[in-house]
UniProtKB/TrEMBL annotation:
Matches recorded under SUPFAM superfamilies: MFS general substrate transporter
Ranges of residues in domain Major facilitator superfamily (MFS) profile: 13-447
PANTHER family: BLR6921 PROTEIN, MAJOR FACILITATOR SUPERFAMILY MULTIDRUG TRANSPORTER MFSC
Transmembrane feature ranges: 12-31, 51-70, 79-102, 108-129, 138-159, 165-184, 196-215, 227-243, 263-283, 295-317, 329-348, 423-442
Compartmental location: Cell membrane
Any matching Pfam family: MFS_1
Major subcellular site: membrane
Organism name: Hohaiivirga grylli
Name listed for the protein in its UniProt record: MFS transporter
Coiled-coil regions listed in the entry: none
Lipid bilayer topology: Multi-pass membrane protein
Keyword Transport belongs to the record: yes
Length: 447
């Protein structure tokens, strides 16, 4: 295999990844803003409407590892292109849905398409960029994920100002068609192992991660606590059988072979902790800014902007630096910055100024941007090229599990603690970030 793609093919190949990944990540965030409107128009309860979000998340988490394994088998280009095609068609179906059931089913299909995009995107980056530019490529990839997830609410508000909620999905159609054409002409052809798809592993994977995410999402409902615990218990039992089965396979769907490598396992654990900390802050801070400090929704969005802006500025730089400086070292520094910014927010006082809030969140953004790209570089580079799909899928799974866990912790704390709950959440998020920094420091260079 050649060492990356030549310019301008490299530019167009990465462009299609940027477009597709932006759509997939955004659609996990923008629907939240329109949920009350969708609920009213489709005449469903608030509790039922949440499944418009959960259906998408569950489909992604259930299909990430299977599609990553399929990418190792048939080639990452095929999985990515088909995932993008499914996502685009499902986006149109979401916009055309006239009932809650139709929209929920379309969101499941859209989530499967998004899983196809997310499962192998970093694996493709490995074949798009030459080795001496890999850090920069992964930095740009991290930038897309971070900024897309953070900017989701603002973009959704802008779209809803100009049109109906259906446009949140319709905008994906022309973008998806453009990306499909570019992808067909520019994405690299990658090695294919040609091994058959393992349906038994797929069932165990679906039971493990499906019940895990569903159980975490329902923890906030005190009336459904028994159900939540049952679901989490089923996830643990299925997970034990899943791991036991995968240990016997030479190319497992759950990359236990890669998790046996300490640097890989520690990097996934570090990613989980960092995204859990980030999500805890993202979910809780709007409540603090609006309900405690009295800012409007629009002003809250502006106040949160320094975080994604600084992440966007730092991520490409940290990706390039990871070619020269040990990524583990950059990860420790970034997570210490993130933890410090969160701790400073927790002690901000009762009457902070706009500047007080902004520079603290900017520190969080610097830390997150400094950490993410080097950590992703370790994950993908510590796996053999033929296992890039498994590494990419597990990286995305760790991120989504961290985000789901962080959101579940916020919901539980909001339900149990009265007053100063956001301050407690910020302290816990800071502790998670510092713990992730310690985990990052345990890694030893191997790349």
């Amino acid at each position: 295999m050649p060492d990356g793609l030549a310019y301008p093919q490299r530019f167009f190949a990465f462009l299609t990844i940027v477009i597709a990944l932006t759509m997939a990540v955004l659609d996990g965030a923008i629907v939240n803003v329109a949920l009350p409107t969708i609920q009213r128009e489709l005449a469903v309860s608030s509790a039922d409407s949440v499944w418009i979000i959960n259906a998408y998340q569950l489909a992604i988490i259930v299909f990430l590892l299977p599609l990553a394994a399929l990418g190792d088998s048939i080639g990452y280009r095929k999985v990515y292109w088909c995932g993008l095609a499914v996502f685009t068609l499902a986006s149109f179906a979401c916009a055309m849905s006239g009932s809650f059931l139709a929209l929920s089913l379309a969101r499941v299909v859209q989530g499967i398409g998004a899983a196809g995009i997310m499962s192998v995107n970093i694996a493709l980056v490995r074949f798009i960029f030459p080795k001496d530019r890999l850090g920069a490529g992964i930095g740009y990839n991290a930038l897309v994920v971070a900024v897309s997830s953070a900017a989701g609410p603002s973009i959704a508000s802008s779209i809803l100002t100009l049109g109906s909620w259906q446009w949140l999905f319709l905008v994906n159609v022309p973008l998806g068609l453009i990306a499909l054409v570019i992808a067909a002409r520019s994405l690299p052809v990658t090695p294919a192992a040609g091994k058959p798809f393992n349906f038994q592993s797929f069932i165990l994977n679906a039971l493990t991660f499906g019940f895990l995410i569903a159980g975490l999402n329902s923890l906030s409902d005190s009336k459904a606590l028994d159900t939540s615990l049952w679901m989490l218990g089923i996830a643990c039992v299925a997970g034990a059988f899943f791991v036991r089965r995968e240990l016997k396979l030479t190319t497992p769907m759950l990359p236990v072979d890669l998790l046996k490598r300490p640097i890989f396992a520690l990097s996934i654990l570090t990613s989980f902790g960092s995204f859990a900390a980030q999500t805890m802050a993202y979910v809780s801070l709007p409540f603090y800014l609006e309900e405690t400090l009295g800012y409007s929704a629009a002003m809250t969005g502006l106040l949160l902007t320094p975080w994604p802006v600084m992440t966007g500025l730092i991520a490409p730089l940290s990706g390039r630096l990871s070619n020269r400086i040990a990524p583990q070292f950059l990860g420790v520094i970034g997570l210490v910055f993130l933890g410090s910014g969160l701790a400073l927010m927790a002690v901000i006082g009762d009457h902070p100024s706009v500047l007080d809030i902004s520079w603290r969140l900017a520190i969080c953004g610097v830390g997150f941007g400094l950490f993410q790209a080097p950590n992703n570089r370790i994950i993908i580079s510590s796996a053999p090229p033929e296992r890039s799909g498994g590494a990419s899928g597990l990286q995305s799974t760790g991120r989504l599990l961290g985000q789901s866990t962080g959101a579940a912790l916020v919901a539980v704390i909001f339900g149990l603690v009265q007053g100063h709950d956001t301050i407690l959440i910020l302290w816990l998020a800071a502790a998670l970030a510092f713990a992730a920094a310690c985990t990052s420091g345990l890694r030893r260079p191997s790349i």
